[in-house]
Amino acid sequence: MKPGSFYAAFGSKDALFELAMDKYGADGIERLKALAEEFGPLKALQLLPKNVAENEEAPAKSCMLSKTFLELNAHDHPLAEKANLHLLRMEVEFAQLFQKAQSSGEIGSLNDPKALARRYQSDLIGLRISADRVGVDAIAIAKEIAENLARL
C-alpha cells in the first residue's frame, strides 16, 4: 500500500492502530462470551487462561492492550487511554461473569464480583507475560488460576 493510499484510508498510523485495538478488544469480549454461552460463567473463566496459554496461532501471548497501555502511558499518548478503556471493559465482562456464577450458586455469596474481576484480570495479564517468557510453564499457571477459581 502506498503512503498516500494508507493515509487516505486511515488518516494516520494512530487511527489504524486504534482500529486494530478496537478489533482486538471486541474479539476478546466475543471469545469470552462464546465460552460463557457454551460452558457457563465459572467454567468460561476457568477455561480462558488455558486457552491463552495454549494458543499457538497468536504471534505473541502477551496482551496488545496492556502492552500498549504500558508503552504509551509513560508518554501521555491518547491511545494509552483507549487501551485502558478496553481493559476496563474486559474487567466489567469478568465481573458480570462472576456475578452470574454467584447468582447461580457456583461461587459463594461473600465474594465481591468486582474484586474477583480485578484480581482475575491481573492474573491473566501476568499469565500472558509469563507465557512469552522462556522457561516458564504457562500451562501450569493457567491450571493454578482455574484451580483457585474452583475454590471460590
Descriptive overview:
This protein has a single domain, classed as Tetracycline Repressor, domain 2 (Orthogonal Bundle), CATH 1.10.357.10. The model has no long low-confidence stretch (mean pLDDT 92). It is mostly helical. It has seven helices and no strands. It has helices at 3-10, 13-39, 41-54, 64-73, 78-103, 113-131, 138-150.
User: In whole angstroms, how far apart are the ends?
Assistant: 52 Å
Order of helices and strands: HHHHHHH
Helix content: over 70%
Structural class from helices and strands? Answer: mainly alpha
CATH homology superfamily: Tetracycline Repressor, domain 2
For the secondary structure, the number of strands is: 0
Would you state the CATH class? Answer: Mainly Alpha
DSSP strand content? under 5%
- The CATH architecture designation is Orthogonal Bundle
What's the alpha carbon Rg, rounded to whole Å? 17 Å
Q: Number of helix segments?
A: 7
Low-confidence stretches: none
- The averaged pLDDT comes out at 92
Number of domains: 1
The CATH topology comes to Tetracycline Repressor, domain 2
Shape: globular
Q: Report the major sheet.
A: none
Question: How would you summarize what this structure contains?
Answer:
The protein has 152 residues and is mainly α. It has helices spanning 3-10, 13-39, 41-54, 64-73, 78-103, 113-131, 138-150.
